């Protein structure tokens, strides 16, 4: 992450704490986002989309229903991220905005890098190389792919709104396009 982006996101976190939620902690948010990412990605992989209601926005859920049905089993398996297989997490974009009716929203894009043992080809569509990591010796080697995903979390901070974060964007580049 560039120093400018890092400073900008920290400034937004300060604004969130000052104006929306005095208890907000990026560390706590990141822990919750990792857990949500793991649960949602596994449910996507298992095609249990009905269990995503309330976690994922209705618009995103509708798009996912169409995309998941078109995936091969191997690509669908690659969506699943066990929480212990998440290697790195970082914040992307943070946005604070108001709509014309005075409704206040905060949106945080999280980026995840995770290991997955799905049987994927060395080259995925779009001719992008998937990183592979081999564990063990030659006789028992286990191949894992280092994959990425972007999940955007949004919460309404208007007085009286539920204090829940909802996933409003799900991207698994080269897998869920």
TrEMBL record:
GO biological process: protein insertion into mitochondrial inner membrane from matrix
Cellular component terms (Gene Ontology): mitochondrial inner membrane
Signal peptide positions on this chain: none
Entry GO MF terms: ribosome binding
Transmembrane annotation, as ranges: none
Annotated PANTHER family: M-AAA PROTEASE-INTERACTING PROTEIN 1, MITOCHONDRIAL
Official protein name in the record: MAIP1 protein
Annotated organism of origin: Chauna torquata
